Give the backbone structure.
Amino acid sequence: MPRAELDAVVAHELGHLRHRHVPLVLLSNIVPIVLFGWLASLAPVPFIALNHILVALPPAILVGGFLSRRIEHAADKAASSTVEDPEVAIRMLARLTKLNLLPARWTGWDVTVMSHPSLEQRAAEIASQFSIPQPRVLELLRVDDAPFEPYSLPPDHLDSAWTAHKQRTSVRNLAIYLACLALPSAAASRLAVSMPVIPIWIAAAALTFCMVLLIPSLVRRWEMPALGRRIRGRLGEAGGSLVALRPTSESRYYGGYPYWDLGVVTFNGSILRYAGEEMSFLLHSSATRAVALTRAAPGWLQSEAVCFDTSYGTFVLSPVGATRTAALLDAAGSWLRAPVGEPAPAVSPLAFPTISSVCPKQAVLNGNMFVVMLLAGLTSLAASALVSGELSWLPPLVAMGAMAAELAPLVTYRETAMPAASKAP
């Protein structure tokens, strides 16, 4: 896409964030089905009262679609104002419609049920807000194939196996997480019809907590060998240990993950060599004061990593895949104790770039986690309603409570000093 049009895409998404549209979209899907379902359950007609969820779906879809389309119009207006050129916003919408092979005009029921307005509706709305004449709008909607200069991305970003892996698995991981939160409640809703209610829901809460704690962790562990092979292939590293790098001794989160880079570390005599996708460096043992075990990340499932205290600062290496923390610590201790029989080679000082990160508590208390919690409650409510045919406050309460319990160690986490007892001699 041309640079100006890509700027408009970013401005549109920023408009959603600025006006807090994500929670509004979730509420626009939750509130109508709950309200219409409750009203239908009070109907004097037995068929409607017994099937109140199914009866509530059509009006809920219509209301949710209407509100979603109004939200998209508001984001279009925000984008036009941000880039200070509404014509660019119209050209952007026309190009995206063409690239996605979508029709320019909705017909029939599509007009009332679709979550996004059609291209013609969006262009007409922008034109009316910024006084663009109709002939000019029709001209803007005709996307030409003239050459343009796009934004270029850094080669490292394009080739990063870790970045590609995060993008490829993000939706799948969210689906697994929501399934772990919703399925026990759905099963409990079904069983509670014929079994004692209190024991069933206590068991559902315990099972939900265990599933959300264990299954995503097992999935990540299962996929690490393949990711490690891709990273080793890109880096050209057959030996050494696959590790995750955190450029500080403090627990921090980088784009939702407790480490910043993945790479391979090798110990050769008095030289530590790290080759990663984001950076590579050499470190001489004489520049390191101590190595110690530390916590890889806060959480219920404790895992350990190796912290390096150097004259340039501290960093942490967490073993990935088949590598064990004890083996990594032993290798680091042997490297630190290795006699230096010759002068230290010329090694550039270790310096990490400026990296954006947040502490564990901030990672939890940002808006995205609250959105996921609302989505978990909605998913649990919908799954339980489909299984039992009834709306209940217990499924979302169990799902959101299990999620809050799972995230509690991050909220209450406090940093501790590097443990002297585990320092390598």
The longest strand covers residues 261-268.
